[in-house]
Amino acid sequence: MFSPGLKEQQFFQHLILWVLMVPFALVMAKWYFHFDEPTTKKGVMLGVIALVVGGLLDAVITVPFFVKSYSVFYSNVYMYIGMVELLLLSTYAGYEFDSTYTIDTDKK
């Protein structure tokens, strides 16, 4: 966002975010499921909780201090695409790690 070539190109800023979100979300989900047994349902709940916490922080910090307009911030369709991506990634992580976890525990 601070790079001179991307300053006015909002789509490419979000595209970079969406690409970087894949490994980051999966690594964070793997870390979370290290402490708790992974399931698809828990993956969905992890995504919902992350979205609720992020939404509250955006409403309390990001919008009042940086954007100054709730309507401008919440009318950005790219933000909602990122939210759906986060929910899908956390759900997939719960599903995928559940398969791995189940296979590993059956071998013991």
Structural overview:
- With 108 residues, this protein is an all-alpha fold.
- The chain has one domain.
- The chain is 83% helix and 0% strand.
- The chain is globular and about 45 Å long.
- The protein starts with 9 loop residues before the first helix and ends with a helix.
How much is the average pLDDT?
88
Major sheet size, sense and barrel closure: none
DSSP, total strands: 0
Helical content (DSSP H or I, runs of 4+): over 70%
Q: Nearest-angstrom radius of gyration? A: 17 Å
Q: How many structural domains can be distinguished in the coordinates?
A: 1
Q: Uncertain spans, ≥5 residues at pLDDT below 50? A: none
Structural class: mainly alpha
H and E order: HHHH
Beta-strand fraction estimate: under 5%
Individual helix count: 4
Shape field:
globular
C-alpha end-to-end distance: 49 Å
